[in-house]
Amino acid sequence: MATTKVTFTLDDVALKRLQDASARLRMPKSEVVREAISEFYERIGRLSERERVRMLRAIDELLPKIPLRAEAEVKAELTELRKARRHGGRRTRIE
After folding, report:
1. Which of 22, 40, 43, 65 has minimal Cβ neighbours within 10 Å of its Cβ?
2. How many CB atoms lie within 10 A of CB 32?
3. Is 76 inside any structural domain?
């Protein structure tokens, strides 16, 4: 595989992590970067763990707020609303 030399600017934290990963894995830094890019590329379009947890937390917060009512009760209310709308809505003025 042909390689091309490139230059990137990294902040101190990213550079320290790259150096640490390289030392721990006993791999050249360029190989660590290639693997990281490959893994990142495979995850494009998928939720990150942080995003997944955030969305699950939102669901956990919203579910208890959904009112539990019988289907017949909901249908009756919708029927009443539709009937009122067909007949001009409210009969009294709201100020």
Report:
1. 65
2. 19
3. no
Who's near 21: CB < 8 A, 6+ residues apart?
Answer: 27, 32
pTM more than 0.70: no
Residue with tokens 């390289």: 22
Q: Domain range holding 41?
A: 12-68
Q: Would you state the structure tokens that stand for residue 47, as one six-digit string?
A: 């939720």
SS (H, E, C) the chain: CCCCCCCCCCCHHHHHHHHHHHHHHCCCHHHHHHHHHHHHHHHCCCCCHHHHHHHHHHHHHHHHHCCCCCHHHHHHHHHHHHHHHHCCCCCCCCC
* Domains: count for the chain: 1
Give the residue from 13, 47, 50 showing the smallest Cα distance to 21: 13
pLDDT confidence bin for 94, thresholds 50/70/90 = low
88, pLDDT greater than 80: no
Residue 82 lies in a domain: no
